[in-house]
Backbone:
């Protein structure tokens, strides 16, 4: 509530946009000023649900609106790059849903455009703005874990064949929706100097990956294991191991909830936090508002360089798996369908 109110334009009207807007309206003074969709009817319907003042039947009209300060890009993964660039070219600050692009190259393109325009740009990696991750950040900075030598994280959710995550033309599969969380945790804790040791995966019933597991290494002192699946429900927990203590993050590790700090002397210190799930999306928006109001173009909680570093690791894993996105993947799906 203390964050200065900005006038938000919501680019896209899907599930994640619905969650963010609801969280904004319940917990902040941010203003849902306008909504943009591919059709006027869809924009009108969303504006009515969200109490937005204006509805636009095109994304170009939304980003051109003079009474909008920041654009939240909430379209499918394969459209993040063109829609972020559209907003930036119009001089708007942007919060782009995670991951910001399909690759590190796309992330660099968004970063370069934002720097050239002098506007704020950030990935909506909401996990890193949650209260519990603020506490974890402090524990790591204070050396409570000693020298960190391992990160282990998994994420898994079963999806039906008709879900968009199964669609090749929307860059489906486990990497972008789910895998970004354990891989972000690994790069956030261990830094950008991670090398891929190896990765393996299996396909889904459609022409997308169904699951993957990856092993990463930082020099000779730390390793990370990350896995994601859209075929099964898994524990979705994380462990950060150090010489002085381990930190065990309960299911679902990337959402609000508890964790345990377990020092080497056998004690257990418990952090309790209500499991409000996506109702906590407002924390990332409040961070945007504070930084934009201060005239800053990024956030130290998720610098764009760290977003790019995570996508570089994701690129390496995809390369090992032979995963394709975009037109190449869609063409392969069509060919396999006969």
Residues:
């Amino acid at each position: 509530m203390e964050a200065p109110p900005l006038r938000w334009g919501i680019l896209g009207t899907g599930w994640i946009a619905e969650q963010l807007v609801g969280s904004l309206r319940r917990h902040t003074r941010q203003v849902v000023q306008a909504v943009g969709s591919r059709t006027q009817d869809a924009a009108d319907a969303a504006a009515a649900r969200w109490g937005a003042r204006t509805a636009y039947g095109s994304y170009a009209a939304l980003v051109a609106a003079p009474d909008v300060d920041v654009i939240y890009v909430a379209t499918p993964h394969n459209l993040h790059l063109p829609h972020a660039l559209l907003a930036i070219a119009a001089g708007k600050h942007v919060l782009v849903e995670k991951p910001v692009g399909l690759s590190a190259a796309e992330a660099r393109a968004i970063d370069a455009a934002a720097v050239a325009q002098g506007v704020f740009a950030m990935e909506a990696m909401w996990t890193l703005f949650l209260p519990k991750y603020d506490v974890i950040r402090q524990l790591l900075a204070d050396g409570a874990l000693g020298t960190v030598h391992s990160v282990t994280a998994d994420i898994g959710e079963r999806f039906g064949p008709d879900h968009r995550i199964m669609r090749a033309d929307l860059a489906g599969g486990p990497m972008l929706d789910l895998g970004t969380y354990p891989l972000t945790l690994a790069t956030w804790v261990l830094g950008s100097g991670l090398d891929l040791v190896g990765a393996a995966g299996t396909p889904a019933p459609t022409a997308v990956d169904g699951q993957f597991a990856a092993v990463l290494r930082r020099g000779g002192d730390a390793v990370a294991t990350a896995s994601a699946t859209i075929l099964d429900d898994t524990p979705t927990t994380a462990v950060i191991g150090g010489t002085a203590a381990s930190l065990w993050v309960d299911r679902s590790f990337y959402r609000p909830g508890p964790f345990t700090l377990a020092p080497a002397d056998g004690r257990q210190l418990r952090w309790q936090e209500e499991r409000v799930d996506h109702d906590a999306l407002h924390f990332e928006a409040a961070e945007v508002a504070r930084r934009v109001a201060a005239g800053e173009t990024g956030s130290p909680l998720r610098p764009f360089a760290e977003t790019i570093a995570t996508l570089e690791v994701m690129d390496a894993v995809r390369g090992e798996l032979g995963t394709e996105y975009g037109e190449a993947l869609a063409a392969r799906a069509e060919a396999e369908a006969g």
About this structure: The CA atoms of residues 139 and 274 lie 20 Å apart. Residues 327-338 have pLDDT under 50 and may be disordered. The longest strand covers residues 209-218.
